[in-house]
Amino acid sequence: MSQRLSRGRPAIGVVGFLVVMEFGSGALQGWFSPLLAAIGQQFGAGAGALNWVSAMYMLMTVACVPILAKLGDMFGHKRLLVVATALVAAGSLVVAFAPTFEIFLLGRALQAPLAAFLPLEFAIVRARDERSASRSIGVLVGALTLGAAIGSLMSGLLFGAIGDLTIVLLVPAVFIALCVPVVVLLVPETTVRKRGRVDIVGAVLLTIGLLAILTGVSNAGTWGWGDARTLSLALGGAAVLALWVVVERRISDPLVDLTMLTRGGIGLPIIASLLFGAQTYGGQTASFLWLLGDSERDGYGLGIAPAAAGAIIVLYALAAFVGTLLGDRLVRRISAHRAIALAGATAAASFALMIVFAGVAALFIASMALGGISAGVLLAVLPAVVVRNAPADSVAIASALFNTARTAAGAAAGAVFALVMTLFVTTVSDGGATESQSTPTSFVAVWAICLVISLALAVIGLRVRVRPAAPIHDASHPHAPEPIEER
After folding, report:
1. Residue 33 CB-density burial (10 A; 0-12 exposed, 13-18 middle, 19+ buried)
2. What is the pLDDT of residues 48-82, one digit of tens each?
3. How far is CA 152 from its chain centroid?
4. What confidence tier does 296 reach under pLDDT thresholds 50, 70, 90?
5. Cα–Cα distance measured from residue 283 to residue 418, given in angstroms and rounded to the nearest whole number
6. How far is it, in rounded angstroms, from Cα 423 to Cα 442?
7. Phi/psi zone of residue 356: left (φ > 0), alpha (ψ -120 to 50 degrees), beta?
8. I need a labelling partner for 216 at 20 to 30 A (CA). Which of 305, 397, 470, 484 fits?
């Protein structure tokens, strides 16, 4: 059974509205990085406290996205998209006018439903036309990626031009606020619903378990991996997630139908998303630090100026945008599982080239761009597979699990890689003082781990299968594209 949107709204218009929203969503996600120093100055927050600007958002996305997506499957994806957009708009206004750093972080927490946009939109575009959903998903992810690059660039330029942090933070707030009536008036509602009751116990257990593990792992670099707080949060969170699995198997209306993961064609793509998040987001910090490091001053790096490094980051994002546009074409030419495997192998080649050409700036940057293209392909193809394989009444929650797995794996890998880098340090003396300093070996170790993870992703990709699209018996779709068949 295929979801259908209400008639009367041009299909291309629906996707167009959502593309504009995703562009704004990406811009908002990239808006804060260039402003961190200004935020610290305005609120008197140090470097450690400023880590919470992104950490608060990340942790709250883990908590709220699966719940919002599940509610969308039960009560309507447009309805929950309106709720999510309104919350993000409110949070953005709080951020812009926050009188204290604590209120600012509250606003960042309210912005977390931003990460629920994509899962809800995926359900809407599958409802629009299941056969063209893969192409629409690639366009949405591409808009998000491009928006992040432009948002990061524009916020820095805008602050440099006017120097008023409140006005700069108001720009995305106004944009998101304008999106609320757009969704209400111009995006139609889906019709298929997941029947049953809201699984409050499952939602609470999943939220507590994920938050505990991520909080422990994220702070392990500060507290220490052997610290009682790190161990208690990580192990306690794992125990809560184990209890969550038991509960979900026993109740009639679970938050997540676990059979969908084990036998529904969703499990392998989500495992692939874990590996993708680990190698892409976990390894980015090491790569960007290598760009900024000075070999004479720091003992590693290419000595690229911060402004030039910012441009390289934008180049990486643009390469990922190109990859999202290539994703659907690759699927149609060589099939989804081969496209995933090819992207994984390309990522592995990117890390291998970064190791080989670590001392040659142009070739190192080109290797990073190759990895960006690979990341874009995976960003487009993996969620399209999840959406195609998910039951019609569980598209949003399946997509939310995919996004949450990728985010959580990236955060955890970042913390683990930070530990790896501390294993390869040297002690240097400067004016009688001694300090520990990273060595090139520490960066090579991270890239080598990412290379192995990418190869594992390629192998798993070969085992992924895609459910054929249901045949369309509808006169309103006379030119529907052929289904994507695995070869």
Report:
1. middle
2. 678 788 888 988 998 899 999 999 999 999 999 99
3. 16
4. confident
5. 10
6. 7
7. alpha
8. 397
